[in-house]
Amino acid sequence: MEKKCPLCGGEMVKSRTRNAGYARYFWRAPWEKGLAKLGRGVEAYPWLCMKCGAIIPYVDEDLLEKLRVEFEKARAGGFRF
Ligand SMILES: [Zn+2]
Q1: Considering its fold, how many domains does the chain have in total?
Q2: DSSP state of 77
Q3: What is the pLDDT of residues 36-77, one digit of tens each?
């Protein structure tokens, strides 16, 4: 899967690993609550733009699809974001 940089249109290259040091979880679903959900975060892979040097974290498509389903469910259930 190829990505174009949203800032300059350059070619982006996905990082070999999704985390380096402590920079691992960038996002947690706001609809998650309760102790059962503790420790779960959404992991993103950093992509580097070879043209302008921007590094942007992206969530993999399969995980994103699951989050979309949860998001729609939460919104349909009246969750306010
Ligand atoms: Zn760029």
Answers
A1: 1
A2: T
A3: 555 567 888 889 999 999 999 999 999 999 999 999 999 999
Question: Separation of 3 CA from ligand 1 center, angstroms?
Answer: 10
CA 68 to ligand 1 center in whole angstroms? 26
Q: Give me ligand 1 centre to Cα 71, in Å.
A: 29
Residue 17 within a domain: yes
- Partners of 42 in the β-ladder: 27
Asked if residue 10 is part of any domain, the answer here is yes
Contact status, residue 17 vs residue 47, Cβ threshold 8 Å: no
User: Residue 47 belongs to what domain range?
Assistant: 3-76
In a domain, 70, yes or no: yes
Beta strand spans in 1-81 (E): 3-4, 11-14, 25-27, 42-43, 45-49, 55-58
Q: How far is the CA of 63 from the centre of ligand 1 (A)?
A: 24
